[in-house]
Amino acid sequence: MNMKIAFVGKGGSGKTTLSSLFIRHLAHRGVPVTAVDADINQHLGPALGLSDEEAAAVPPLGGRLPLIKEYLRGDNPRILSAETMIKTTPPGAGSRLLRLDEDNPVFAACARTVEPVAGGRPVRLLATGPFTEEDLGVACYHSKTGAVELCLNHLVDGREEYVVVDMTAGSDSFASGMFTRFDLTFLVVEPTHKGVSVYRQYREYARDFGVALRVVGNKVLGAEDEEFLRAHVGDDLLVTLGQSDWVRALERGVRRPFPELEEGNRAALSVLHREADAAYEGRDWERYTQQMVHFHLKNAASWGNERTGADLAAQVDPGFVLREERAAQAVG
Prior knowledge:
By secondary structure, the protein is an alpha/beta fold. It has helices spanning 15-28, 44-47, 52-56, 65-73, 105-110, 142-153, 193-208, 223-233, 245-251, 263-279, 285-308, and strands at residues 2-9, 33-38, 112-114, 123-127, 161-167, 184-189, 213-217, 237-240. This is CO dehydrogenase maturation factor.
């Protein structure tokens, strides 16, 4: 299936660890994966086996925003210049669309290949980039994740391909329209009152926009922890994972073969995979496009028109619906 999957959760819940394990699970099975680090702390690269120096060398999407905008704009007559594009600008007739199985200037400039599983399929890694000294005090992290949102708006993913995004921790995941860009969102929750309160907050955000949300219980030590989660989360609880000696070794810099991951945790990752595949049947391209337009008009009115000096509502192509077959019509 062609799936866009997000991992969200409060800081310290294990969100990045679980997203990296899911990416490894897919790579081990030969599934094409594009991994995106959209967390302010930028830990996904090291979690996939890169050294800190290698992870820091991944070109930041936020630093290539002019290139990304110019490429995606294509020949769309509704977008007068790349400078008038904002993070929510939707595609229309003449826009260039991104496919995961193609070469394009965006991937050439920003993506790097990692091999998180020995003998598995290599993974394409993209990263928003960390805060720099120049950003401090003058920018919010949404200025970084805007490049990811713009790319997701123009993405038409093909069969049997996954995009897995490690989102920023906390409720900031819902501070822009990007949380509606996914086929399924996995919310990582610890068996604590604080973890459950975060779940309730996320559930309300997700419900308002029809976001498919499933809970992954993490750091579950036994039946008592699982019963606690089940009592507070109910049927939203998909699966639980326990402590992992395999993960602890990885965090100490010891890389063990992926099949040595504990059997119970490997089984849990298979459940995530099956749930993600099943979510494909719920994909609604018209609603997806409508949500894109909704957030674009909202951002245009609140700050975009003033920032760009243009009427950004005019960028909306009312006859355009993003669909898989649109990729064949994209500007070359």
